[in-house]
Amino acid sequence: MIEKSELDKNKIKFEVKKHYNLDIIKIETIDGGNANIYKLTDIHKNKYILKEFQLKFNSKTILKEVHVIEHLRKKKLPVPEYVTCANNQKYFEHKGRIVILQKYIEGKAKDKYTGNKQNLLESAKYLGLLVNALEDYQYNDMFKSNIKKFTTNEDIEKSIGKYKNLIFQIAKADVYGEEIKKDLNDKIEMLKEIKKDQIITKITNITIKKTHGDYNVLQFIYDSNDSIKVILDFATAGELPIVWELARSYNYMDKECKNGEFNIDNLILYIKEYLKYSKLTKEDLKYLPYIYLIQLLSSTYGYKQYLQTNNLAMLEFGKERTNICRYLMKNKEIISKRLSEINILI
Fold it and tell me: With 0-12 CB in 10 A as exposed, 13-18 as middle and 19+ as buried, what is 54?
């Protein structure tokens, strides 16, 4: 859930005039991302995007995004352009929130599970180009992934404990209570099976590189030819297992994933396209379904938020991810075998 904005239309006009010396005449609210987002139009009909970040995002996080975007812009990748404040900063603060202004980019967005094969190939290409471009990123401001966070028996037990705690919190009067209990108990049983299988303890040498951190179709703006015009939102950029970013971005894009299932042939096409621009190892491919599965199984996101706020969209998101887990539990060996057959040129 996005935190309630500290800005209203009059405050936006005042703050934008104060920090950017722009006279705003029109303000529209836009849904999405990790921030409260507004589309602004000034007296000269120039358009901008104003983003008011949640409290968890501090100035260091935003400066990291600025650094990443500036680095990728030099590499000719399609990224947003920040507007600089009058004091030469890339952001200002309002009631403890970081606020930034970017030039507006005309185009259209896509929903999850709406991508065709052309969209898949283009997404894979830009992910490969992006990862390659960040190889010589000079700042030491990205978080570093700890793969052991998801691959030890101790962490599996912690995740099981979180689900048991959520089950305890379900109100007897909750109309969705029994449905939620079934989902959470299913995730507990899947975690127990993963622990018993012990294969995740063998995941020790996968490729971890600097990447977007939240790379998926919801971060793209498309032009009139249905091609990616810009890649948005680098606030969560970090060093991650690349196959996690690959699996998740494929899953969010492919229209055939809508019911929680993968089209393995499409996933293979996605990975092969990525390999034209950046490298993977045989071990990466072998463990891709396991890494994505254990990350989804370990996360309470969706259910926890629903139980706190009664937001049905959060419940649907949690259920969506549980269905993906069920599919991956049944098909992880098949996916792993198929991906292991991909020819990698060293």
Answer: middle
State the CATH architecture for 117-340.
Alpha-Beta Complex (3.90)
* Whether 50 contacts 56, CB under 8 Å: no
Residues ≥6 apart with Cβ < 8 Å to 168? none
Q: Mind listing the pLDDT tens digit for each residue in 8-29?
A: 999 999 999 999 999 999 999 9
- Which pLDDT tens digit goes with each residue over 259-282? 999 999 999 999 999 999 999 999
Selection from 230, 198, 231 nearest residue 212 by Cα:
231
CATH superfamily of 9-103: Phosphorylase Kinase; domain 1 (3.30.200.20)
3-state DSSP assignment of residue 315: helix
Contact criterion met (CB below 8 Å) for 86 and 22: no
Enter the pTM of the model: 0.90
